[in-house]
């Protein structure tokens, strides 16, 4: 009996050690237009590596990032890899990073960007929540709806309302007809609601309808996680949220 217990304990310990040391894949970068790329980094979710999407925008005056890599309290290697990819492949400095809400898959790499001299900006709500979560604060300069240009690239940052979080914004690139929906928008490959710890599920559908009204012509829609598609992702998200809220009544 003691031998059996020892074997079982050994197997359990080995299983836990293996779960703790599961390596995350290296970053990858996928082009979605001539000057816009999706950077894909990985964090642990549900005990497995899970992909997270951000943007790399190549302008004539340097590079703009949307969201940091999915880093952690102990490592900023993903964001470091994103910066290295930009340096190696685009040969330009990163001028700016826009973070779209205060979860670690969006803001945990701020310290690495600051080391590299990159300015990081957000809404006041995201800046406040970043500090509350123990991350460095971005510059809280974005209002709820603002458009600015860098290197002849127009960039619109828009808060449609609460959903995945109370501070989630999206980024629209009108020249390329690309909408970065972030975690407010679900990939067409996803059929669950994901992390709802900070969600306002009752407001989510209304926020998606605003996106559909504003950006329903989007050629490309980039969700926070999983596959990139087109405006079908907005309709898919609305269906998921509507089904979820109806089931909760």
Automatic annotation (TrEMBL):
Residues 1-19 form the signal peptide. Its cofactor is Zn(2+). Keywords: Antibiotic resistance, Hydrolase, Metal-binding, Periplasm, Signal, Zinc. Its EC number is 3.5.2.6. Residues 51-225 form the Metallo-beta-lactamase domain. It catalyses: a beta-lactam + H2O = a substituted beta-amino acid. Belongs to the metallo-beta-lactamase superfamily. Class-B beta-lactamase family. This is beta-lactamase. It comes from Spirosoma utsteinense.
């Amino acid at each position: 009996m003691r031998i059996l217990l020892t074997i079982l304990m050994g197997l359990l310990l080995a299983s836990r050690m293996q779960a703790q040391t599961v390596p995350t894949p290296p970053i990858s970068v996928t082009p979605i237009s001539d000057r816009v790329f999706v950077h894909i980094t990985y964090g642990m979710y549900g005990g497995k590596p899970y992909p997270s999407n951000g943007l790399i925008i190549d302008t004539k005056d340097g590079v703009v990032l949307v969201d940091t890599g999915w880093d952690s309290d102990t490592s900023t290697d993903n964001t470091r890899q994103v910066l290295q990819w930009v340096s190696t492949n685009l040969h330009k400095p990163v001028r700016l990073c826009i973070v779209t809400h205060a979860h670690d898959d969006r803001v945990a790499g701020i310290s690495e960007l600051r080391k590299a001299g990159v300015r990081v900006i957000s809404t006041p709500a995201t800046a406040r929540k970043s500090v509350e979560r123990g991350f460095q604060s971005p510059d809280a300069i974005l209002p709820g709806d603002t458009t600015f240009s860098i290197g002849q690239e127009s960039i619109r940052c828009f808060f449609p309302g609460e959903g995945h979080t109370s501070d989630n914004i999206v980024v629209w690139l009108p020249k390329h007809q690309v909408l970065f929906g972030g975690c407010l928008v679900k990939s067409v490959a996803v059929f669950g609601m994901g992390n709802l710890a900070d969600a306002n599920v009752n407001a989510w559908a209304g926020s998606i309808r605003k996106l559909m009204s504003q950006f329903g012509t989007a050629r490309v829609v980039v969700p926070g996680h999983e596959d990139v598609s087109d405006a079908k992702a907005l309709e898919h998200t609305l269906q998921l949220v509507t089904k979820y809220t109806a089931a909760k009544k």
